[in-house]
Specification:
alpha/beta; 9-stranded mixed β-sheet; 5-stranded mixed β-sheet; 15 helices; 20 strands; globular; binds zinc ion
């Protein structure tokens, strides 16, 4: 790749101040990193290729919780609560899925996410090699946390943990072009694994600097046994030593002030999945309490069988709407805060300071949002707050036209560059027929 300078009328850096740059340039080096992001006025001298865009440049969105291969299961058991949905609909179908099916499903999910502006996805699923291959095939960035759970026929949790440790030791914690793949540990939940297993995972991950990602307190009653012994799952995780290392918890809907204090004390990342929680009737996570406590909260789509769209713009809007409704305060989560949840804060929840912000040194994972849509009919020459409001409340993912990961174009004019979208979808239809 040559050095490139992207010019755009507006760039949203998605830094902590949610800075809006007018007359922006973004310089990307041959290694796929950002060299400069800011105003054209005062930009350093540049030699390379100039690319002129007419809309908004911003970081790619960071999805902190997904099971993308479940594109194959989309629409199944859509009116069941969590426990029945898992045991009656999902687990039986997943038992029939082969690694080829996981490849096809992950490929389709990754294409959908890229088209929606999501450049990083955190995945908890089976068949790691198939997921790696799918993500690299479409050019997406992913944090892959192979699932670990007890009670699967013919498999032990210990062997699953050893499999992850071996993969990290052999391939490295991060690998692939542009370090696109990061490996992590994915213990499913405290209700599908014993405390001893969680302790062992914490030790294995700690030795390797790896992220541990699990479901916590998604629905009421799922963790009754843990609550009886430890008070809550977060209290158990702290006691078992998991909070000492990188930890990312999905959901955390049913938590109290002490749990949130534990999250803040250890800077535990939270993957807030408002659409999935609402669809499964699980409840609403206390977002404003978490933000006030300083907890790094990102957004997750969760799997496409419980959402059912892989659209983080939708999650940002829904997160803010639910938070405002819950506390009867229109200022409780601003449009800018909602935007940062999907970018900057998602990266923080993953413990990654190389993603989620347009800033020199970070990976050049970024998107172009067209302003040739009704949401921006008032034009770009409006106050910054109004511009961000138009993006968050009205524009949505349909405005995303172009996407780059590590400086490489992976979506152009709305279509994936490295795969044929129609063939990808045709393979999903074939696989879905097999596992039904
Ligand atoms: Zn999940």
């Amino acid at each position: 790749m040559t050095r490139r300078r992207f010019h755009a009328p507006v760039a949203l850096l998605c830094d902590d101040a949610c800075t809006v740059i007018r007359g922006a340039v973004l310089d990307v080096n041959a290694a796929g990193r950002i060299e400069y992001a800011g105003s054209a006025v005062g930009a350093p001298d540049f030699s390379g290729t100039d690319i002129r865009l007419t809309g908004i440049l911003m970081p790619g969105l960071v999805n902190t919780h997904a099971h993308s291969a479940m594109t194959l299961l989309r629409g199944i058991g859509g009116d069941l609560p969590l426990s029945r949905w898992l045991h009656e609909a999902m687990f039986p179908a997943e038992a029939r899925m082969t690694s080829d099916d996981v490849f096809d499903g992950t490929l389709a999910g990754a294409v959908e996410m890229l088209q929606n502006g999501i450049t990083t996805s955190t995945e908890m699923y089976f068949h790691l090699d198939a997921q790696v291959e799918a993500m690299l095939t479409v050019g997406s960035r992913a944090v892959l946390a192979p699932v670990v759970m007890d009670g699967l026929p013919g498999q032990s949790w210990r062997r699953m943990v050893e499999g992850i440790s071996t993969a990290i030791d052999e391939r490295g914690l991060r690998f692939g072009d542009g370090a696109r793949i990061e490996l992590a540990y994915g213990p499913h939940s405290a209700y599908l694994l014993a405390p001893a297993a969680l302790s062992e995972i914490a030790a294995a991950a700690g030795r390797r600097g790896a992220l541990v990602h699990l479901h916590v307190a998604e629905s009421p009653g799922e963790d009754a046994a843990v609550r009886t012994t430890y008070g809550s799952v977060p209290r158990m995780l702290e006691e078992l030593g998991l909070t000492a290392n990188r930890l990312l918890l999905a959901h955390s809907v049913h938590v109290d002030a002490d749990d949130i204090a534990i999250y803040a004390r250890h800077q535990v990342g939270i993957a807030h999945c408002p659409a999935s929680n609402a669809k499964l009737g699980s409840g609403v996570m206390p977002l404003t309490d978490m933000l006030l406590a300083g907890v790094p909260v990102g957004l997750g789509t969760d799997g496409p069988a419980s959402n059912d769209a892989l659209d983080l713009f939708q999650e940002a809007r829904l997160a803010a709407l639910l938070a405002r409704s819950g506390c009867l305060d229109a200022a409780s989560v601003t449009a800018a805060q909602a935007l940062l949840l999907a970018t900057n804060r998602g990266a923080a929840a993953l413990g990654r300071n190389d993603l989620g912000v347009l800033e020199a040194g970070r990976w050049a994972d970024f998107i172009h949002v067209s302003v040739d849509v009704p949401a921006f009919a008032t034009g770009l020459d409006v106050p910054d707050d109004q511009l961000i409001a138009n993006l968050v409340w009205a524009a949505a993912a349909r405005g995303v036209t172009d996407v780059w990961v590590a400086g490489q174009a992976v979506v152009t004019d709305g279509e994936p560059v490295l795969v044929d979208r129609r063939r990808v979808l045709a393979r999903v239809a074939e696989a879905a027929t097999r596992i039904r």
